[in-house]
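Ligand: flavin-adenine dinucleotide. Inputs:
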Amino acid sequence: MGKVTGFLEYERLEEGYEPVEKRLKTWKEFVIGLKEDEAKIQGARCMDCGTPFCNNGCPIHNIIPDFNDLVYRGQWRQALDVLHSTNNFPEFTGRVCPAPCEAACTLNVNDDPVGIKSIEHAIIDRAWAEGWVVPQPPQRRTGKKVAIVGSGPAGLAAAQQLARAGHDVTVFEKNDRIGGLLRYGIPDFKMEKSHIDRRIEQMKAEGVTFRTGVLVGKLPEGSKVTNWAKETLSAEQLCKDFDAVLLAGGAEQSRDLPVPGRELDGIHFAMEFLPQQNKVVAGDKLKSQIRADGKHVIVIGGGDTGSDCVGTSNRHGAKSVTQFELLPMPPEQENKPLTWPYWPYKLRTSSSHEEGCVREFAIATKEFVGEKGRVTGVKTVRVDWKDGKMSEVPGTEQVFKADLVLLAMGFLGPVGSVLEAFGVDKDARGNAKASTEFIGGYRTNVDKVFAAGDMRRGQSLVVWAIREGRQAARAVDEYLMGTSDLPR
Ligand SMILES: Cc1cc2nc3c(=O)[nH]c(=O)nc-3n(C[C@H](O)[C@H](O)[C@H](O)COP(=O)(O)OP(=O)(O)OC[C@H]3O[C@@H](n4cnc5c(N)ncnc54)[C@H](O)[C@@H]3O)c2cc1C
Ligand code: SF4
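Predicted complex:
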């Protein structure tokens, strides 16, 4: 364990942020990671409590007490090996994971949890800087061919695991760059894209082939999901050419808000707005871009995607940014005895909110109002919640000024036509139907076709996508070889 009395001696130390004025002028990451000695002290706070709830709280079951201890002892190289044994991409989770492990930390029962995510971040950033992260090509090749549809964290984790098991892996991506929502959802200020690029180089050296601009199956007419495909490949062809296919196409269908005035100009899905900015940061020249400069921006939806719209709008130079949430404001502090070790219900204020945003809770949108075909305002009403039921509060109608409205109310699920092209059954929520049970896990009803990540579980988190990609890789390996040495 770290230092026996460490948790009594040292406080939790948060990673720092660049000042707001400075970070609003750039698209660069602004989190200041822990220095080596700071990370050691944070590692020393780990109590080695015996039943590591953190390890269970982490969806990929990172072996947290072990790497905390190794960092405390200055054995960074070994800490990296422990981290990589459960997580293909700690530089992604070390930046964007909401850290359910910390909610589950035993110290969190009556103190501040160990800064697990900041330690993970420190280990992997040091590892890249030291040149410790190198390709691990397989010792032997199986001659089996695996196709992966979608290059988000689920597809990438599966591809790396399967290539290391010796299979011939090809990743198909309809967009022009690899990375899924890591590339075209999460803004650069939360995660710079060079982190994806160097992993792609590593994976190419391990034998993975990447094919961008290839749509597998088809999208419905008028679909608004990101699609920069230059060619299409049929599901039948893919199943014919490969020994196994893993569907990891995400849950891309945005939830709409069909109220009067929805057709007005200036109302967009978050996933029309955010990918464009990531493209511009990547150096692409766009014919036109949805911009927030000088505008009153209303973001509808109080979650992470909405928060990314807030941060992006403020970097554009919006005149005002207001975010609506249908649910009431959660308590600022969780009820720890009630919620620990689970993810607590509490108010979450992101770094984007701190950069400037008015947050309105318990508010519903009734109508978009406009002039000459363009949105000028949002008509709202306050709502009351009782026993899970919502009712409008009479006399609370109000019109908020709006030049740009961004819809960030979550995602309905995967694009149905892609699953239909393969003949894959859907569950009640429209996701690819496949259980995660050990035998037959991740297998759909169609022979040799598997599904993982948001496409199987619905809209979720990067860490869950990595978990599903890893577990699906083992399932595919077992299907192809009869047995598998890949970890689950
Ligand atoms: C704006 C935004 C911010 C987020 N922020 C966070 C965060 O901070 N932390 C966090 O943990 N999670 C965050 N998430 C959620 C997280 O990004 C997703 O849960 C995760 O990326 C899902 O991974 P995936 O691999 O299953 O799918 P995705 O990342 O969605 O990747 C799927 C890929 O498949 C491709 N594809 C789909 N269909 C086809 C086809 N037919 N042919 C070829 N290619 C296809 C898509 O183009 C896409 O690139 C965020 C999501 C959004 C939208
Ligand atoms: S991946 Fe997320 S939950 Fe797991 S240890 Fe890292 S920050 Fe915690």
